Predict the 3D structure of the following.
Amino acid sequence: MSASLVALSPALIVDDEPAMRERLAELLVRAGIQRNAIAFAASIAQARQQLESRAAALVLVDIGLPDGSGIDLIRWLRHTGSSSDAVVVSSFGTQDLIVQALRAGAVGYLLKERDDAEILASLRSIGRGGAVLDPFVARHILHLIAAAPAPATARGEPLAEPLTPREEEILGWVAQGLISREIAEKLSRSTATVEDHVKNILRKLRVATRTQAVFQARSLGLLQ
Amino acid sequence: MHCESIRVLRALSIALAVVLLCACSSADGESGLHALVAAQAVRGEARSFVVPGEGWDTVQVPDFWQSRWQRHDGVVWYRLQWNQVDATQPAGVLIEYLNMAGAVYVNGTLLQRDASLVEPLSRAWNTPRFFSIEPPLLRAGSNELVLRVSGLAAYAPGVGRVWVGPESAARNGFDRLRFVRYKFPAFAFAVTAALGCFFLILWLMRRREVAFGWYAASALAWLAYDWNFIAPSAWPLNSTYLWQSLNAFFLFLFASAFMLFVLRICVRRFPRGEALLWLGVGIALLAALVGPALARNAIIVCAALLVLGANALLVLWAWRGDKVELRMLSGIALLYVVAGVHDLLAYLDIVRSNNYYADITAFTNTLCIAAVLAWRYARSMERVENFNLQLQRDVAAARTELAGNLAREHATEMAHARIGERLNLVRDIHDGIGGSLLGNISAIERAPEKTTVPQLLKLLKELRDELRLIIDTAVIEPANASGAFAEQLAPLRQRMTRLLDANGIVCRWDVSAIETLRPASAQALDVLRFVQEALTNVLKHSGASAAWVSVRAEDRGLAIEVRDNGKGIGATPGQGAGTSSMQARAQRLGGQLMISSRPGQTCVAIVGALPTPSSGACASPNSPNFGDVRGF
């Protein structure tokens, strides 16, 4: 519990529920972020305003916001070229939604119902510059790789870059429910290394603007 | 089809009638031809070709000598004279026939001589002859025509009509006679042969059409008989007697086959009568082979009567029945009866005639019957085609109906599956959240003052964990059709490991051989709940630094084991409730709960769970137990 999330400072919490905002803020403080380095927003509009005036290293975003989906905000962040780490904190997590968020550029997806300790552990991973994946997301990515050429749906777009064998191996472990520490033990590497790999995998899952252009051109028959 | 075939038949009959009429007009009354009637005749020596000097009787041609010289088998000379006014133009001599064979002389010069004038005789009885006589053979004034005829008394021997006149007129007469007596019969012979063979093959291919078979048989027997009209010699026989007898037999054979044809086409059967008929055929053959020459007449009369009878029956049955094709046939049969009566009378010498019409009418008969049979065949083909069409329609209708049924069935199945899934979810909620909710509500109600905030928090967290489990399994199953247990276990594993890790407890998992395990959702949930409860206990109460989880598929069933190195179960009060719920889960899984605990070594396990993974030991997901749900 000693690792700090200083690297993620300053942080922005985007949630329309005051109680939730308070809980998340407390968790961040417990992780070592200064109270005054935490900003709040209750809607996408507010969040944009905040971010335009002051960049944030970490953005915790709820999905169901009064003026839209948190995923749109993440997309906007990617679009503006922001280097913020966006993490979804939602009360529901269907597979579709999680994959969508990750593809839009989120580095994590946390469920509000989880114990504080769990959420804190995930935040720490992100603070270390890594990422955590749910087993079924790992399975989804594995399916994407196996089913090439991928179907032309938003969810099923091909990966921007192929995965390395090591990344595929890690994905396999994640799909079986192993956590980073276990994988690190199996590979005789540090947990941070494994989480770095996971972050790379997520980056490759992301829909890059360039890839999107190529993909659309191909589907329009402009490219062979 | 129906009207068309009648029209075709009518056209055919009219055409044939015209041909018949033309043919029957024969050579009588030829323009410019003069019939020689007065003649003289004398019997001659079989091997002599010298015209006898005396013994000439005055006769009239046409002449059948058996009335004058009964039993005379041999040679008779005929002498006819005519007066040629203008000998500069060629004259024509036309002879209707010589029965059986002969030689022709004019003014002492041989003009023609048949190949065989002794037995077996050449068969010239149906052969007209034409000669063009020119000077110097032709003389002005009296000219003499001498005919040397070889014949057998039994078969109407003699000479037919004789004409003289201008060459061209005689040639025309000859052409007409030759058409009636040779060309047309030969043509009819060939057509009958073709039709007979055709229907024979048709019958061979399709034995059920017995009428076709008898038609073919009668046609072939008729051919054997009909050959008599066009055969130039008695070959392959060596006797005119045998030829004539067998010829009569073939007629009888034809009559019998035709009778059978009539019976079959009218769909009648007379086993005894038919046996009698075939006995008659045997007798006829015997009589033909060894009987006297006169037996031939009896056979022919019997055959003619048989054919007349068959035609009469055909007419009778046709007009009693309602089959169109039989009525058509009966009309032809009537024509045939008339011709047959005439021929019979002619043969029996009651009517003086050397013209036999049965041959011609038999041909029309053959054609018409073939047409009717073809019509019948076409009708049955049409029926088959209609049947096929009907069948296709029926099959298409049945297919549509079946597709509809299948679609309905599929929809019903889907609805059932959906209801089943929903009920499963309801039962999962009932078993999990419902149970602990009820237990805790009653506990708090009994002693509200003793309920502390940590206790309430613990209760709410339990409910939340249970909800998470249910949602995880419910979400995974439909998304991944395989629904493999390994996939359902993974989220729990990750979550619990991370949670324990965060609390300073290192958790190690051993998951093996469960890749193919596919328990029902209720059972999967029970396994997951068991692991979750056990690990929660480790987290909350054990104070352990390490935990081990093992989920293994063994021969005896699934073994689930959770161990820790904490202080042991007995050390913490109020853990009994957790144990009893674990007991219930073990029972539901068909396994056995085993708990062993001492400080530093605690093990909670279920062994032998899901003894046969796919057996009905547990509630099938498609037949949820409503009793359970109602109890909630």
Q: What stands out?
A: The mean pLDDT of chain B is 83. Residues 206-356 of chain B form one domain. Chain B has 13 helices and 18 strands. Chain B has three domains: 21-179, 206-356, 418-631.
